[in-house]
Design goal:
globular; mainly alpha; two-stranded antiparallel ribbon; 2 domains; 21 helices
Length: about 500
């Protein structure tokens, strides 16, 4: 049996990696080797815990208690285990991709890029391991600060302005809404520890419950529930590996993970959704899904379209959580993983297209499948997963969410999922069609081939995983099933 004293290794490894990257910055090959070796070591450490957590182990370690009743503590449970596995594994793939992308595009400040990336992964591990709201908030803020230099990487005035929007929205919402919600919870409950079944029952009632829920949901801006979503399109000025970090590896996943964890462990799903004042969240999630999908439909820039697609897909997790049925709760957790594989594949493809041809607009992609067949094959798989077509990961998560909606007789959720699936098809399938079957647009250079090997390798791995997950997902279903066995059928 593993000791809880090994939990800090998940934080220390990427921190040590950041130090090693800084020390080897003058030697690019060595620097990137340090980054890759650190990512592999972290993934091995994280996955070594999976069997024990799947068997019911719940390791916990208190590191300090700076304030009475507010310990700085780490623990591992099924939801955190899944998030840590996704972030650590995809760090390996993203590092391989970054090596090809950053070198091919001759990006400046590459050492800073790899350092900040490692720090962001350390923060993501802290969020996955957070034992209470106090610990979660500290790592949530560290994640925001460590990713700001990545978003502002290019350094030109337009990029810096967009990065300030990113930083302003995420810091503003967390300090003005998330922090007061944590303090309020501590005052009424005497603790902020994540506890299965929640800690709010009997301590708050009426409209105050809906208000506290709103402070949490909109205070966690990384979940991008409208109207707290502007930071996500603004962040698309970042290099593609950063976009992949934001959308698939750490940032947005940290947002929906945090909201889901708060609903399950702070409010308790049974208690929260017996309260009429909490009903608004289902409508907010449904509105975000439909509205963001409609906005995505009218985008002409590939990365901006993918950004609005992400906003919609994130709220699938929120909607699934509030349905309050076992199948939907499992679907919420599975969608975090399914979206990670599919969306990172799409951003990898967008970066491959930019690296090989410097194309960024959708109209420029006509006929590109003939010049970049591997890239567009990966893009097609990612797009089908976002729509929810078998045999892709997205079908699995949508199946569970929709089954839970029918189980709960939630017609709003059923309509939202069906309508958004149609909208997803409307903005993804034309891209796939024109890329494979249309002639190139007049005046568009097609004298190029595929992106470098490192980019292709990373992209094809994530595309393959998007399909593999369709067939081999039982370990994750069993793990997350531990969260919902107490829910009413």
């Amino acid at each position: 049996m593993m000791s809880a004293t090994t939990l800090p290794l998940m934080l220390l490894l990427p921190l040590l990696g950041a130090i090693g990257i800084a020390a080897t910055g003058r030697w690019p090959n060595l620097r990137e080797t340090v980054s890759l070796v650190t990512a592999v070591a972290l993934a091995i450490t994280v996955f070594s815990w999976f069997p024990e957590v799947a068997d019911g182990a719940r390791p916990r370690l208190v590191l300090a208690e700076p304030l009475p009743g507010l310990p700085f503590a780490l623990s591992l449970e099924p939801l955190g285990m899944m998030f840590a596995c996704i972030a650590s594994f995809l760090w390996i793939i993203n590092t391989i991709y970054s090596i090809g992308y950053m070198r091919s595009n001759r990006e400046k400040h590459q050492t800073r890029f790899y350092i900040c990336f490692a720090l962001a992964i350390a923060a993501a591990m802290g969020i996955a391991l957070a034992d209470n709201l106090f610990t979660l908030f500290l790592f949530y803020e560290i994640l925001t600060l460590s990713t700001y230099p990545l978003v502002a990487h290019k350094g030109d005035p337009a990029t810096v302005r967009s990065a300030r929007v990113y930083l302003g929205v995420l810091l503003g919402t967390s300090i003005a809404l998330f922090l007061p919600a944590i303090i309020w919870t501590y005052v009424i409950a005497g603790t902020t520890r994540f506890t299965l079944g929640g800690i709010i029952d009997g301590k708050l009632e009426g409209a105050a419950i809906g208000l506290l829920l709103g402070l949490f949901v909109f205070g966690i801006g990384k979940a991008a529930v409208m109207p707290v979503h502007r930071w996500l399109p603004a962040a698309m000025v970042a290099p593609t590996p950063v976009s992949a970090l934001l959308h698939a590896v750490a940032v947005v996943k940290a947002g929906v993970f945090s909201v889901t964890k708060i609903i399950i462990y702070i409010f308790g799903v049974d208690f929260l959704f017996s309260q009429p004042s909490a009903d608004w969240l289902q409508f907010a999630a449904a509105f975000t899904i439909i509205a963001a999908s409609v906005v995505a439909l009218y985008q002409t820039n590939l990365k901006r379209m993918l950004a609005y697609s992400t906003i919609a897909q994130l709220s699938y997790v929120i909607l699934a959580t509030v349905i309050l049925k076992p199948l939907a709760e499992i679907g919420a957790a599975v969608h975090i993983a399914a979206h990670a594989f599919g969306k990172i594949t799409l951003f990898f493809a967008a970066g491959a297209i930019y690296t090989a041809s410097h194309k960024t607009e959708l109209w420029q992609l006509a006929g590109i499948g003939r010049r970049m067949p591997w890239t567009m094959a990966a893009f097609t798989i990612g797009a089908l997963s976002m729509i929810g077509v078998p045999p892709t990961a997205g079908f699995v998560s949508k199946w569970f969410i929709l089954a839970g909606a029918f189980q709960a007789e939630s017609y709003l959720a059923i309509f939202t999922i069906i309508a958004s699936t149609a909208l997803n098809a409307m903005y993804f399938l034309p891209i796939v069609y024109f890329a494979w079957l249309s002639p190139p647009a007049t005046g568009v250079d097609m004298e190029h081939g595929e992106a470098p090997a490192a980019i292709l390798l990373a992209m094809l791995v994530t595309a393959t995983l998007t399909i593999v997950f369709f067939f081999f997902n039982q370990p994750l279903l069993d793990l997350e099933g531990q969260l919902v066995r107490s829910l009413p059928l």
